Amino acid sequence: CDKLRYSLLRGRFELVNVVVKGPSENNVAGFERFSVDLSWIPLLRRNLVISALVLEKPWTNIEVDREGEMNLVRAFSPPKPEDAKPDMEEGHTPPFNVVVQFLQVIQGHFRYETDREDLKVVVQEVNIAANANPLKRSGNLTLQTGEARLERPGINTELDQLKLEATLRNGSIDPMNLQANTGKSRLKLSGHLRDVFRKPDADIVLDLAVSLAEAKRSLQLEPPLTGEVSGRLAASGTLENPDISLGLGYYISNVAVSK
Predict the structure, then answer these.
(1) CB–CB of 156/132 below 8 Å?
(2) 3-class SS at 215?
(3) Rounded to 5 degrees, what are φ and ψ at 53?
(4) Can you count the helices (H) and strands (E) in the chain?
(5) Second label for 191, Cα 20 to 30 Å away, from 67, 143, 182, 200?
């Protein structure tokens, strides 16, 4: 950590250039700047109010070995004895309601790699803006990413952009919008979820357009494919018994299968 600034009276804390190292001294995670502003007066009403929390350029290099152990977990906590008791009993009530008035993550970078599944995921330019009040079951979330890449045997796919917007109000998520784009393929999900914490009820629409040429490259298929496949899925009702409708369309300019 290059710098640590704090003011207990103002409720402000700031860390600059922090790097977390694993047991083997390799860099596991870090960030360029972290700042948090707290409001002390609401503590009298058992509310811990975070007026602003900003995390700039965070990054993680998560690796999972063949035994399923994650380097990030080992960096923060030593292994516990098998007979160790859990830190918190089931049903424990937090002493404060944590209210986040403003949360922002700027230009994050995420890398995940596991030897067991031979999988590698990289996500760049992660930006998040959010606020939340758990007691009132309300909050807003906007998440946006830049380029993302997934690699594993037989699959090599890239994503140009992903954006998620959701609002939680009175136990319902309304509206909810998700968009994801590659070079020539698109995915869009919109709708709402009612009564999320008791008996979820959905009303969502998913639109999808897939470039066959991109799918061929991502799945490493041999037959040359061109054109586009599109579809729409609409679902409404409870999650246990939803009403679902599905429509498909395609335009294929050239399909050739070698024998």
Answers:
(1) no
(2) helix
(3) -135, 120
(4) 2, 16
(5) 182
DSSP bridge partners of 229: 210, 250
Q: Which two tokens stand for residue 131?
A: 């606020």
Give this prediction's pTM: 0.81
For 3, the 3-state DSSP assignment is: strand
| Closest of 210, 203, 190 to residue 237, by C-alpha | 203
Structure-block tokens of residue 179: 């968009």
- Asked if 174 contacts 194 with a C-beta cutoff of 8 angstroms, the reply is yes
Structure tokens at 74: 């080992």
CA pair distance 209, 211, nearest whole angstrom: 7
> Going along 22-118, which residue ranges are E strands?
27-39, 47-56, 59-64, 97-114
Q: Which of 18, 17, 110, 28 is nearest to 77 (CA)?
A: 28
